[in-house]
Amino acid sequence: MSKYIQAIRGMHDILPERIAIWHRLEDSARQVLSAYGYAEIRTPLVEVTELFKRSIGEVTDIVEKEMYSFEDRNGDSLSLRPEGTASCVRAAIEHGLLVQPRRLWYRGPMFRYERPQRGRYRQFHQIGVEAFGLTGPDIDLELILLTARLWRGLGLDGFRLEINSLGDAPERQIYRERLVAYLSRHADQLDADSQRRLASNPLRILDSKNPETQRIVADAPTLMDYLGEETRSHFEHICRNLDRAGVAYRINPRLVRGLDYYNRTVFEWITDDLGAQGTVCAGGRYDGLVEQLGGRSTPAVGFAMGLERLVELMALTGLHSEPGIDAYLVAVGESAQAAAPGIAERLRDGLPSLRLMSHCGGGSFKSQFKKADKSGARFALVLGDGELEREVIGVKDLREETEQRELRQEDLAAFLADHL
Ligand code: HAM
Predict the structure, then answer these.
(1) Distance between CA atoms of 381 and 294, rounded to whole angstroms?
(2) What is the DSSP letter of 274?
(3) 249 near 163, Cβ under 8 Å?
């Protein structure tokens, strides 16, 4: 047996050196979402398994292979949530939130038993957004513009936006028949997974990664040709207004998404900087889901972004380094050590934004200075019994070659406010 217990494969600790980037991402998203009028909702990590089966679809990878499902002590089948849309819809129906249009967002861990690799984990985090009760294409557009604003704010450029329309159910049904007829003629050239999907979920064959299957798919009929007038004009409205807003996009007729609830608009933001797992944000319209889960028919559209992937990209830009602390209080001598906590507290009162670390554990000036330096602080604040008697404090800039200076204790907050 291994000497120490490790985290579960595909589930990661988020260490202090990365946390500043997480905060930056989460804070920016919260700020943008609230500026667009979205309200946060928090739902449990665990739901009845049936919820995900009914919403994501029985014949999807997520439900077939990736859910963490278990029986609780009552014998009920529960699952760790693999995504947030189903829970959000469940909660919105349960609490009667859908009597008027509602813009909601959520964040938190999701769980999928996938094969871990760079950018793909078994516990990962999403920020998701769901807008309910709005039929027109203007809300689909708003969601895309909102994400574009977030990327700009985070200094992330180079994402590619791909969009498609999956049509409404009757249109998709006709298309599905044509697609199956075409693919069946080439069934022996499809990969095993796609052959299986031919009967259960043929649209998913469109985004197969198998080169031979892709070759067959390249000549398959496209859904876009089966859209009715209303669906088409919904889609064209979005494209036209993305053009107007100067947001570049590519129509990808093979973009079908891995969850069954979508209709009409689907979109993904993709980067080339993360290897195979390049989709950083994905979503679309799902007008039938609320009713399917027992609510009143309510149009809906949303997306979710993968935070691990965005954090990794932000780390690559180098723009978001760990901010560290501002000052480290060094105290040597019995009276100085006794007075240090009070001085530190007064300083925190005077300058609440100051990131001040007080030395704990005693030791010589030399050893405390070493710790101050290692802490990454800009200034060491030095308190010996002599300074205490004169009611001053030594201030040493640890990052520049300057002499240590002395300041009156009451002037310290103002000095630090000026220099940080
Ligand atoms: P999804 O495409 O399954 O959609 O996931 C959205 C995003 O979550 C992905 O684009 C990716 O960035 C991230 N993600 C998914 N799986 C993993 C994983 N195993 N490891 C790391 N990141 C991952 C949904 O979840 C829908 N609920 C989105 C939505 C909301 N549609 C409408 N409303």
Answers:
(1) 63
(2) T
(3) yes
Question: Rounded to 5 degrees, what angle do the CA atoms 348, 366, 407 make?
Answer: 40
pLDDT exceeds 80 at position 319: no
Instruction: Give distance in angstroms: CA of 252 to centre of ligand 1.
Output: 18
How far is ligand 1, taken at its centre, from the CA of residue 379, in Å?
43
Contacts of 246 (CB under 8 A, 6+ apart): none
Q: Which of 83, 123, 161, 293 to mutate to test the pocket of ligand 1 (most atoms within 8 A of CB)?
A: 83
Q: Is 112 exposed, middle or buried (0-12, 13-18, 19+ CB in 10 A)?
A: buried
How far apart are the CA of 81 and the centre of ligand 1, in A? Answer: 12
pTM score, whole prediction: 0.92
Q: What is the pLDDT of residue 419?
A: 93
pLDDT averaged over the chain? 95
Q: What is the C-alpha to C-alpha distance for residues 124 and 311, in angstroms, rounded to an integer?
A: 12
Torsion angles phi and psi, residue 47, rounded to 5:
-135, 170
- Residue 207 — very low, low, confident or very high, per pLDDT cuts 50/70/90? confident
Which of 156, 125, 128 minimizes the C-alpha distance to 271? Answer: 156
Contact (Cβ atoms closer than 8 angstroms) between residue 144 and residue 323 = no
Q: How confident is the model at residue 198 (pLDDT cuts 50, 70, 90)?
A: very high
Tell me the per-residue pLDDT of 130-166, one tens digit each, with 9 for 90 and over: 999 999 999 999 999 999 999 999 999 889 999 999 9
Ligand 1 binding pocket, CB closer than 6 Å: 83-85, 112, 114, 119-121, 124, 126, 128, 130, 258-259, 279-284, 286, 302-306, 308-309
259 CA from centroid of ligand 1 (Å): 10
- What SS3 class is residue 64? helix
